[in-house]
Write a structure and sequence with these properties.
The complex is a heterodimer.
Chain A (H helix, E strand, L loop, with lengths): L7 H9 L5 H19 L2 E4 L1 H16 L11 E5 L26 H8 L3 E6 L33 H8 L5 E6 L5 H7 L2 E4 L19 E6 L2 H11 L29 E5 L9 H16 L3 E5 L4 H19 L18 H12 L2 H14 L5 H21 L5 E5 L15 H6 L5 H5 L4 E8 L5 E7 L5 H14 L10
Parallel strand pairs in A: 2-3, 2-4, 7-8, 7-9
Antiparallel strand pairs in A: 1-3, 4-6, 5-6, 5-10, 9-11, 10-11
Helix pairs in contact in A: 2-3, 5-6, 7-15, 9-11, 9-12
Chain B lengths: L4 H7 L6 H18 L31 H5 L5 E2 L2 E2 L7
Antiparallel strand pairs in B: 1-2
Classes of the chains: A alpha/beta, B mainly alpha.
Chain lengths: ~475, ~90
């Protein structure tokens, strides 16, 4: 078996047993990228020379008898909205086409301390606004399972790179489903952690009260490994929670006996494709056969969550993206007569249409006379949604739902209809609204052979339960599907 | 609802090309129509999660990034400063 097909956990074990070197692992990753990324187009920036130097350093440490972390020498791809010191970070926008961060995000510092290998930066929807990775200023990423289809978004580059075997691990970010939906479309595992469990320092802000960085991989164990490496309190992020986290890889095989699984009926309604619904319910049955109990629950505010999400996230985006003005960093228009013109031209030329739409929506809902009608109602609905989730967790330990109503759509299919595109987030935004953890797990394919994902949602800081349940399912079905032929 | 897209764009320091105004206006109106379905709620909004108060850093001097490193990303600099158009007449 080729090295690029192995999981990070397996590669770490092989490395420590001297079955391969870190340089070989890194070379395998770059040779896979050279072979398939022309088709997949997941990477915006490659970091090959530095990665090989890092790998050689890991091999030297190993030779010197140092005890290495499980992530030492493991190739990781990073979504291009997470700052990497000295390596371009563009948010897939013309606005930041030339931005080289002078510092690294906290998650990157943590991975550096564990001797990971930065392979490169991954494509995404511009400023993480989108559900297909088509709003990237630079390129369109293809779904490795069907190159005519989108990988999902906004972390589409991260999902596609992992699914295509270019890297075993990647980081994405999730504001309304941006880790879980592409993971689902590409047939991999993706975690949106509890709000506050992973530091957002160095993540280019979209909607600060909803954004979380999340791990993506081909196995549950690898997601547990990467999550454990990036979570924890950070003085640089005031919203990061103060608590102890367990080693998530140690509690995976506890089984699901006695676990109460809730099925919220609002997530299985009309708009959900029947192949998707059947596959998710089939997976629930499989867990039931292992001793889990299934209960029906209701989350009545679900139909309004998408509206609340677009109001709150756009309002925060309009404020967060005000910093892009052509003064201190990023793109600056070549022609301007005064400051006003510098701002307007820079922003109009630097942002794409979807980003402009969100900024304007946010500006509108916050503008004088409309604040109470939109933003305030959105925040109230947010609170109600969180309360309904909390109440449902009196009757069950976790919820299982589809991640997204359909499987991956065609490139170009939804791009000219914003509302249709937004609707693909309808089952994932609630998790961000309520600040909960959500795990996307592959659970079969539709009639066209496209991956389907189920979403496990739990109370705040219940990642251990979600990962254990997903791991039980993965072992039960004998592992997820192999990397597709490209 | 009618949305004055030029006004909103102005507030957001954006310029929308004339030929795209109609398209943006239609799209914005349909998005606003979508988000208008929110029910009237009478509860009081709670801004912060009382179970998790935010902790602020101690206010003390610590090493920061070097000026040269920060200015390396600026579009135009002169003598260690960012160059911008005249702002005060």
């Amino acid at each position: 078996m080729e090295l690029y097909t192995k999981s990070a956990t397996e590669l770490g074990r092989m490395l420590r047993n001297r079955e391969c070197s870190a340089v070989e692992i890194t070379k395998a990753s770059f040779s896979r990228i050279a072979g398939v990324d022309g088709k997949v187009q997941a990477f915006l920036t490659l970091n090959e020379q530095a990665a090989l130097e890092k790998a050689a350093e890991v091999d030297q440490k190993l030779a010197a008898g140092e005890i290495l972390s499980p992530l030492a020498g493991i190739p990781v791809g990073i979504k291009d909205n997470i700052c990497t010191k000295g390596v371009k970070t563009t948010c897939a926008s013309k606005m930041l086409h030339n931005f080289v961060p002078p510092y690294s995000a906290t998650v990157i510092q943590k991975l550096e301390n564990l001797d990971y290998t930065l392979v490169g930066k991954l494509n995404m929807d511009e400023f993480a606004m989108g559900s297909s990775t088509e709003t990237s200023y630079f390129q369109k990423t293809a779904n490795p399972h069907d190159l005519t289809r989108v990988p999902g978004g906004s972390s589409g580059g991260s999902a596609a790179a992992v699914a295509a075997g270019e890297v075993p691990l990647a980081l994405g970010s999730d504001t309304g489903g941006s880790v879980r939906q592409p993971a689902s479309h590409c047939g991999i595992v993706g975690l949106k952690p509890t709000y506050g469990s992973v530091s957002r320092y160095g993540l280019v802000a979209f909607a600060s009260s909803l954004d979380q960085i999340g791990p993506m991989a081909r196995t549950v164990e690898d997601v547990a490994l990467l999550y454990g490496a990036i979570c924890g309190q950070d003085v640089m992020d005031a919203t990061s929670a103060s608590r102890e986290y367990p080693d998530f890889t140690k509690s995976l095989d506890g089984g699901v006996k006695g676990l109460r699984i809730g099925l919220p009926k609002e997530y299985y309604g009309e708009g959900v494709n029947s192949d998707v619904r059947d596959a998710v319910l089939q997976a629930v049955k499989a867990l039931e056969a292992q001793g889990a109990q299934v209960v029906d629950v209701s989350l009545p505010s679900t139909p309004y969550a998408l509206s609340a999400y677009y109001i709150i996230s756009s309002a925060e985006a309009s404020s967060n993206l005000a910093r892009f003005d052509g003064v201190k960093y990023g793109y600056r228009t070549p022609e301007y007569k005064n400051l006003e013109e510098l701002y307007e031209r820079t922003r109009s030329e630097g942002f794409g249409d979807e980003v402009k739409r969100r900024i304007m929506l946010g500006t509108f809902v916050l503008s004088s006379g409309y604040y109470n009608a939109y933003y305030k109602r959105g925040k109230l609905l947010q609170q109600k949604t969180a309360e309904e989730f909390a109440a449902s967790f009196n009757d069950c330990d976790l919820l299982v739902t589809p991640v997204t109503p359909t499987t991956a759509f065609k490139i170009g299919e939804n791009i000219s209809d914003p509302l249709k595109m937004y609707a693909s987030d309808i089952l994932s935004v609630t998790v961000n609204i309520a600040g909960l953890p959500g795990l996307s797990v592959p659970c079969g394919k539709d009639q066209g052979g496209l991956p389907i994902g189920m979403q496990l949602i739990g109370p705040k800081f219940s990642e251990e339960t979600l990962l254990r349940t997903a791991y039980t399912y993965e072992k039960l079905i004998g592992g997820f599907d192999p990397i597709p032929t490209l | 609802m009618n949305i004055d897209i030029k006004r909103v764009a102005k507030l957001a320091r954006l310029r929308i090309e004339e030929e795209k105004l109609d398209k943006f206006e239609r799209e914005m109106e349909s998005i606003v129509a979508m988000v208008e379905n929110l029910p009237e709620l009478t509860d009081k909004a709670v801004g912060l999660d009382p179970s998790r108060p935010m902790g602020l850093r101690e206010d003390k001097i610590r090493p920061s990034l070097k000026r040269g490193e920060l200015l390396a990303n600026a579009p135009q600099t002169q003598a260690g400063c960012v160059v911008v158009p005249k702002t005060v007449e």
